[in-house]
Design a protein that fits this description.
The structure is a single chain. This protein has 7 helices and 13 strands. With 285 residues, the protein is of the alpha+beta class. The model has no long low-confidence stretch (mean pLDDT 85).
Length: 285
């Protein structure tokens, strides 16, 4: 059910072509449709599938060409209008629009999780940019980028002295994109982007294959009964076993610190690399 959380904002296409308050109908229609798409998709991504958002369009005001949107959000989570950069948010210094202005024309090839809720974007020129993870997730989402292209880049493309201005309900400017910046909002080829996530946790495992001569060639059975290969990083454990300071048996249950690195190239199945960082203890000892 839609609640009373009402948010309103305006977009103004300021170009030589809109000086008489007219704009190409097809481009405007496409922009309005994609405004609904980008907000609803962003809302689902950041607030969950159960969160609902309704968007309405009000009659435009006087100006170059102004469209006013009114949204109703059924969630107490993150405001999608603020996180994208369509309207002001409390303390929202970083937005999707702001991030794309920083990225410019650089081609994203990889995303990798960092500490404290940040994600690092790596580009084809080997430069990097750290962003809040929720911003990074939206920046590399092709559906979101398709909609932003239709809202920002397409209506300004080919125009002169052009600028898209985002305003609050009272008509005060919140954000803008110039014609020079608009090309930074073109859509992306999703297949080139890889996502790397890393997780370390304590698990209880059985060793099913061992190789005391190398870090490779090890295999463990996880709590879900699956068999996976691991790289043995705990040299001290190997040394204890070889010195017989540690009792070792393939039937023994061990508590270990396991790092799992997941690499996902969009459009393909993810791959996993597992590293056994430390054998904490053998269960029962």
């Amino acid at each position: 059910m839609i609640n009373d959380d009402r948010y309103a904002f305006q977009i103004s296409y300021d170009t030589d072509g809109t000086a008489n308050h007219t704009i190409d109908a097809e481009k405007l229609g496409d922009a309005i449709i994609n405004m609904a798409k980008v907000l609803k998709n962003t809302n689902k991504i950041i607030n969950g599938e159960a969160s609902e958002l309704r968007l309405e369009v009000k009659a435009h005001s006087e100006g170059s060409f102004v469209v006013e949107f009114v949204s109703y959000l059924s969630s107490n989570g993150i405001n999608p209008m603020s996180i994208i950069g369509f309207m002001k948010g409390a303390g929202a210094a970083t937005t999707v629009i702001g991030a794309l202005k920083q990225i410019k024309s650089r081609k994203i090839k990889l995303t990798e999780n960092a500490k404290n809720g940040m994600t690092q974007l790596k580009f084809s020129d080997d430069s990097t940019l750290n962003l809040p993870s929720e911003i990074a997730e939206l920046v590399v989402n092709k559906t979101i980028r398709d909609s932003l292209d239709a809202i920002i880049n397409s209506p300004l493309e080919g125009e002169s002295n052009a600028k898209l201005v985002f305003k609050d309900e009272k008509g005060q400017e919140v954000n803008n994109v110039t014609i020079e910046e608009a090309t930074d909002f073109k859509t992306i080829s999703q297949s080139i982007i890889e996502e790397v996530t890393e997780e370390t946790k304590r698990v209880e495992v059985y060793f099913t294959k061992v190789n005391f001569e190398s870090t490779s060639g090890w295999q463990i059975r996880l709590p879900d009964d699956s068999l996976v290969s691991v790289t043995m990083k705990d040299a001290a454990f190997i040394e204890r076993v070889l010195k017989k300071d540690e009792k070792f048996s393939k039937t023994a249950l061990f508590s270990v610190n396991l790092r799992t690195i997941k690499t996902h190239r969009h459009g393909t199945s993810p791959t996993y690399k597992r590293e056994l960082l430390e054998v904490v203890r053998q269960r029962g000892q």
